[in-house]
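Researcher: Here's the sequence for the chain we discussed earlier.
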Amino acid sequence: MRNQRFITAAFLVWTMFQCARNDFLVEAFVTSVFRTKQHSLNNLLMVNLGIHEEALSDKKWRRRPQGLAITAFRRRDAEEPRVESDCPDLFDLIVVGSGNGACAFLQQCLEHNDKPDLKVLVLEQGEKYMTHLNDWTKSYSTDSIFRLHNAVTPSGIPVLSGKACTMGGGSSINYTMIYESSQWLAKTIGHTVEFWNKLKEELSVLFDRPDPFAIETPFCKYIQEQAVTVGNYAKATEKHMTANIPSYQDQLCKQLYAFPTQFNEHGQRTHSGVSLVDWRDSRLILRLNREVRDLLFDESRDNGDSSTCLGVKVKNTKTGVIEEYKLLDGTGKLILCGGSASPRLLMRSRERFNGNTNIGKHPIGSTEPKLTTSLVKFNPTKEGYYEDGNRDQIMLGFFEDERDTLIAEKAIKENLKLLQSLGLEPWGPFKWIFRSMTQIPYQEDQVNRYVEHFATKTLLSQQHLAGGCVFGKVVDPGTSDPLQTGKVFGSTNIHVADLSTVPLPRVSTQMTAYLIGYYVGHQLFATTVERQTIVDQAFLASSNLELMT
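Model: Thanks. This is the structure I predict for it:
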């Protein structure tokens, strides 16, 4: 017991040192560390060090964990993405970002596009994926791939809201694989439940993930047992899975979900969104460290109702040089997959999209609280928005409405016994330190003070913003014409294929973000192929009929 406390304390001190600039992150780690049972210490280290469970069985790794950057298991056969120094003058597609939505979009684009001279330019603000294939946890303590939004409440309280700036986007940080429900997608975007079930099945197969029920760890079993017996949650079940990836169930309010790992046997993240794309494809050109600053238009081509994008103006963040990249005249498309950057870019040219005031608004999502491990999450009652006149600031209405406080207090109190059952309370002095820093509650009468402290001192948001380019308000949902899917109203060739097209999902956002990108790519490319196949078959059938007659 003393050894466990010493190791845990040492790990906490290291973490606090790394996060000294922001006590929000300290709180997140405190919650993680001290809600953990004694027997699961190795699992804790495995999660935070990025080492696979089998690797921990080797005693030398227990003696010599190399900080948070385990580099001994580098894949020598891993191929680097193709990065060209010289680009052609014009592109068929310019894709802004290489995150979740972009990876799924590109997979569909490359699979269903047989144009021999296709040129697709991908502009990524961050680094290539090899930089976090092994060292992904360093993102929490450096700004190399994990950065913060300039987010505040209308009252001026800062909100910790993160974004990933690297290939793979949020999948370089988030490893929770669960879809929003097909009912939610059908209501939010359109189409039928069956349509979304089919799309999920296609996408899930591409990840080729193992059955989480077949490799359930003792730690997972313990968590599930406590959730069922103490929290009255229903056990995770395979019937909610699609190719080993679960979907949220609307009708089940207290349901557990098991999701597969994205890591290989060496703790490397080899099955994030990056794995969906063949980055060595000769049709792809990847430009790293490129921040898109503005969209380029030709005023002489504007017809009054719609504008045509000619290309983008980009800053090379390494050299500071401003560059311009252009689209093919008449056929080129700009695909925005930059997450929070997508509405920002559109807002800078709002007048070209008929002054659409819905650009930049975060629509109100479900306020129903959800328990995710040891965190209670829910969407705020008030709508958020990107501030006009300030290119960086985001307004989030957290706890601006009293209902947010009531929801938080009720949800935490209802789940406090379950949270307490998942681990031992910290050692006396540490408990006092954590209470003084975060007001984290250990008893029900401490909950209200904790929520008040959180709402005024340590606001933390979901690590992926949604909304700003919502289907039906800013972009076409594609329910009438697949080729219009994701197209910005008031434009002829700008499409959005990321999570900014929907309200914030009620579960971890990663798989829904993949699905949105996959959906837009499928509608623009796979549907076109399917239509042409139907036309060809009809033509062949009519020709055969003529021959017979």
